[in-house]
Amino acid sequence: MGRAPCCDKANVKKGPWSPEEDAKLKSYIEQNGTGGNWIALPQKIGLKRCGKSCRLRWLNYLRPNIKHGGFTEEEENIICSLYISIGSRWSIIAAQLPGRTDNDIKNYWNTRLKKKLMAKQRKEQAACRAAGLLEQEIKRESETFLVNQSLNQLPYWADQQQQPASMAMMMHSNNEADQLNRLLNMRFGGQQQFYDNSQFIHQFPSQDQLFVEGSSSNSSAVAMNFTQWLNTEYDLNNNGSGMNNFAADEVEVYLGNHHPNNQQSFENGNESYSGGGVGNSISTTSNSAGSNSWGDMSSLVNTPASSFEAYQNGMLQLAASVE
DNA sequence: AAAAATTACAACCGCATGGTA
DNA sequence: ATACCATGCGGTTGTAATTTT
User: Fold this and answer.
1) In a domain, A148, yes or no
2) Which residue minimizes Cα–C1' distance to C14?
3) A11 Cβ nearer than 7 Å to chain B strand
4) Which of A36, A137, A171, A312 has most Cβ atoms within 10 angstroms of its Cβ?
5) A276 and A216 share a domain?
6) Which nucleotide is nearest to A106 if distance is taken from CA to C1'?
């Protein structure tokens, strides 16, 4: 008893597409569209292919305005920075690069960029070591973390719940934006991305530009400014209202001036938004990076860890790895 | 020159998701 | 509510092309 196949595998061709098949699919879709049904399409036009295969061929190769190869340095930078912040969510990354497909980006990353980035990281670590700065940096980061924690700038449950162990982020966390990102990670336990009308913002805004709105199934939305929110304790029994409820359905951080009469409804952080007043949202989607097959790269990604101990261990391992 | 190793990338597979009946 | 189905997604594989030995 396995999963039911999506098509009759015995009567379906696999492997590379012939120019004839390409032409057939292309001309049909150009004239008639996909008809909103990929599964029925191959039979309709006499192609011995699975509907999924047709869809993939069209989206990744035949569809107009597709770019192949020749990634520019700017594109590389976008891919790297997005990978570091959101992990292997190729379709989201592809959406930021017109003409590029998720498959292409994924392949490019796997075959070249990750090596390039890791080489760069090794080089930087070597440079730090040579300058005797790494241990200093780690120590300082660790202290900053502890100081913040003792000042209750982190949620009181951070120790028992989730927090990021992003070595890349921690190591370079000497500016407000990164520290803010870290705080957000701790509150959300996942990845955050700021959008401005569907476009990624690559720079984190400062704390005073933000306000927070939260709601849960048993309460209406609550909003407060970001600093207030950082000092709010969650009710772990889920009895709190809005964002005070640990199981809040939505806790969203908005960029812009909060106006109580101008609250907009955000389904989730990924939705595009247009309108005045509040401008941007932050998504609270969970992390998917770090679960891939090459564990090394997880250190480059903002991945939540289980405890402060994990953070410390990570730091120790990092220190050991560069000895 | 040929075999082996590596790289590049198209395509496949199974699971997740969201819409709908 | 829920069962079903098409589509979307991301990990992985297969293989042609290229490079190294």
Assistant:
1) yes
2) A15
3) no
4) A171
5) yes
6) C10
